[in-house]
Amino acid sequence: MPDTAATDFKPLSRVEMAARVARDIPEGWYVNLGIGIPTAIADHVPLDREVIFHSENGVLGMGPAPPREKIDPWLINAGKQYVTLRQGGSFCHHADSFSMIRGGHLDLCVLGAFQVAENGDIANWATSENDTAPAVGGAMDLAAGAKRLWVLMEHTTKDGTSKLVQRCSYPLTAVGAVKRVYTNLAVLDVTDRGFVVIDMAPGLTFDALQARTDAPLHRSA
Amino acid sequence: MIDKIVQSMAEAMADIKDGSTVLIGGFGAVGQPNALIDGLIEQGATDLTVAANNAGVGHVGLARLMELGRVRKIICSFPRSSDPVVFETLYRAGKIELEIVPQGTLAERMRAAGAGVPAFYTATGVGTKMAMGKETREFDGRAFVMERALVGDVGLVEAWEADRWGNLTFRESGRNFNPVIAMASNLTIVQTQHLRELGEIDPDHVVTPGIFVDRVLHVPYGDPTGF
Fold first, then answer.
1. Residue of A nearest to B122 (CA)
2. Residue-by-residue DSSP string for A131-159
3. Long-range contacts formed by B201-206: CB under 8 A, 24+ apart
4. What is the pLDDT of residues A8-37, one digit of tens each?
5. CA angle A215, A193, B125 (to 5 degrees)
6. Is B79 near chain A, with CB under 8 Å?
7. Structural domain boundaries of chain B?
């Protein structure tokens, strides 16, 4: 575990991480947000910036969670939470919904992950080969199908192990799919050279970031 | 006169055989044909292969069917839920076979079955455990894995409206797998919240045309609750 006292920096909170991703999503994109931290990204995209959120269970144009008294029991997202539909939103069946994903119609998907490798491999659905009841859901479709796959995750596990790795040790979700990673410490593009650092938490140095990362990092040109 | 409306659950469930593959609609609790699942429990068919997105919650519905030892194999994308106790107990004891399928591949396998397409290639799952033992092939420089169509002997579907020809509409996210299951199944059984007279459903609003439907049972249960 690196000595955190060596540098004076403040990792991003989960809310700040979601807001950081939201900043980079332009108006007009069709976007699917994975279950977990990525779901919170939608809260940071202002409604007047028209980004269209998709949910695997056939909802296109998803809006924010309703107040309790306005819950519509027929309208849930892929995380099985109650949501709303924006004006202009629509419903479709599962095969059409996944055609949007698998047919390359989504501009962006943001998923959580256990590990991302420097070649863009992602592991986010099972932590060991012997997982008793592995559950993949739509993760493999989203990872292989969206025009861009970004990952939003903590930079390390709770015990300080880097989640940005040279090669994934967990079962893969997709091969060479990740284009960018947002963590609580940095924003990194996945390139032919490997991870290129394009942004860091305030006060963090490149060397301190490298010390917390298994995969070799590169400075942006 | 064509009349696909049946008056009893026994009629709806008639002739479902042991060893059948049963496709069940629903995502979470929404659009899930709970009454028909209870009807299947009552009907008694066993040694079933069930395809559904999830593998049951608590001790009711699909979980109950499994608990009774009637399901030989489950095909699903996400065998976890708020309370997956029945599935996990059976799975650990080696009493149920599990085939995990990516959710989009599951839906596409059903659509393919309905469209008479025996197999197709997809990028989903390439280079992962899902592709093990399956043919992969390159098209235009990208690798794809071959997946087989998933035909249902029986499909259990929940609709919002239905008429006696079997034309169906769905409500909001209750549509989910239901239309592709109707297409993919040799015997499609529908429970509907509302019965409509022939011609009452605007032809432009019909989502599943009656050709894909065999039996319709009126089950006006209200709103879905719980997951």
1. A102
2. -SS---TTHHHHHHHSS-EEEE--SB-TT
3. B201/B161, B201/B163, B201/B167, B201/B169, B205/B169, B206/B167, B206/B168, B206/B169
4. 899 999 999 999 999 999 999 999 999 888
5. 75
6. yes
7. 9-119+153-218
Query: Which candidate in B92, B126, B173, B205 is best for mutational testing of the A interface (most A CBs within 10 A)?
Result: B173
ipTM: 0.95
Distance from the Cα of A7 to chain B's closest Cα (Å) equals: 39
Average pLDDT of span B100-129? 98
Residues B157 and B169: their CA atoms lie apart, in Å, by 11
First to last CA, chain B: 40
Nearest to B102 among A59, A72, A138 (CB): A138
pLDDT in tens, B141-151: 999 999 999 99
Determine the distance in angstroms separating the CA of A40 from the nearest CA of chain B, rounded to an integer. Answer: 21
Answer whether B103 sits within 8 Å of A93, measured CB to CB. no
pTM: 0.95
Residue-wise pLDDT for A80-107, tens only, equals 999 999 999 999 999 999 999 999 999 9
Q: Which superfamily, per CATH, for B9-119+153-218?
A: Glutaconate Coenzyme A-transferase (3.40.1080.10)
Which of A59, A133, A141 lies nearest to residue B102, judging by beta carbons?
Answer: A141
CATH architecture of A14-219: 3-Layer(aba) Sandwich (3.40)
pLDDT band at residue B227 using 50, 70 and 90 as cut-offs: low
Could you read off the pLDDT of A45-93 as tens digits, one per residue? Answer: 999 999 999 999 999 999 999 999 999 999 999 999 999 999 999 999 9
Residue of A149, A160, A164 lying closest to A196 (CA atoms): A164
Nearest CB among A74, A102, A133 relative to B91 is that of: A133
Is the CB of residue B207 less than 8 Å from the CB of residue B178?
A: no
